[in-house]
């Protein structure tokens, strides 16, 4: 499974500056996906986080994980016309900072789906090292 930014925009409602996945580079429909976010110095959040020492906010890393996990759920048969709403994040851990120039690899695996509620494990990596991870829960609703 590979998706470019235009194909992602057909699945997710997020738009600039809140679209945090540039492309999906691998995955299995309805099971798991690997996405990429190229972190550039031009990101709007770097203006205030932090001047002179730009660091990608952890909450945006969690949102990037949620977007990749949503793509996994929304690509399952029968879910294409739905929206994924973030319900919870558990066991969230931040292991190192993400800075301009980093390529964030975002991995998400659907671990449970019951009705319109799904759970996923996800993590972000830079240069093969885990920088953040979480267990996420979503609810799907008709758009």
Brief descriptors of the model:
single chain; 143 residues; alpha+beta; 6-stranded antiparallel β-sheet; 2 helices; 43% strand
Helicity, in percent? 10-25%
Beta-strand residue fraction: 35-45%
The separation of the N and C termini measures 24 Å
Average pLDDT, all residues: 96
Radius of gyration: 14 Å
The major beta sheet can be summarized as: 6 strands, antiparallel
The ordered string of helix (H) and strand (E) elements is HEEHEEEE
Strand order of the biggest β-sheet = 1-2-4-5-6-3
Low-confidence segments: none
Compute the number of helices: 2
Shape: globular
Structural class: alpha+beta
DSSP, total strands: 6
How would you sum up this structure, described in words?
17% of the residues lie in helices and 43% in strands. It is α+β, with helices and mostly antiparallel strands and 143 residues long. The chain is globular. The two termini are 24 Å apart. The model has no long low-confidence stretch (mean pLDDT 96).
């Amino acid at each position: 499974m590979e998706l470019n930014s235009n194909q992602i925009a057909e699945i997710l409602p997020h738009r600039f500056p809140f679209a945090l996945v540039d492309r999906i580079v691998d995955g299995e429909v309805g099971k798991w996906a690997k996405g990429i976010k190229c972190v550039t110095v031009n990101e709007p959040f770097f203006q205030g986080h932090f001047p002179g020492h730009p660091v990608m906010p952890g909450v945006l890393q969690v949102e990037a994980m949620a977007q990749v996990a949503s793509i996994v759920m929304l690509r399952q048969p029968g879910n294409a016309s739905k929206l994924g709403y973030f319900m919870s994040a558990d066991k969230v851990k931040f292991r190192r900072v993400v800075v301009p120039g980093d390529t964030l690899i975002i991995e998400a695996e659907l671990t449970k789906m019951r009705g319109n509620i799904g759970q996923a494990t996800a993590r972000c990596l830079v240069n093969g090292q885990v920088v953040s991870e979480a267990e996420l829960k979503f609810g799907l609703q008709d758009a």
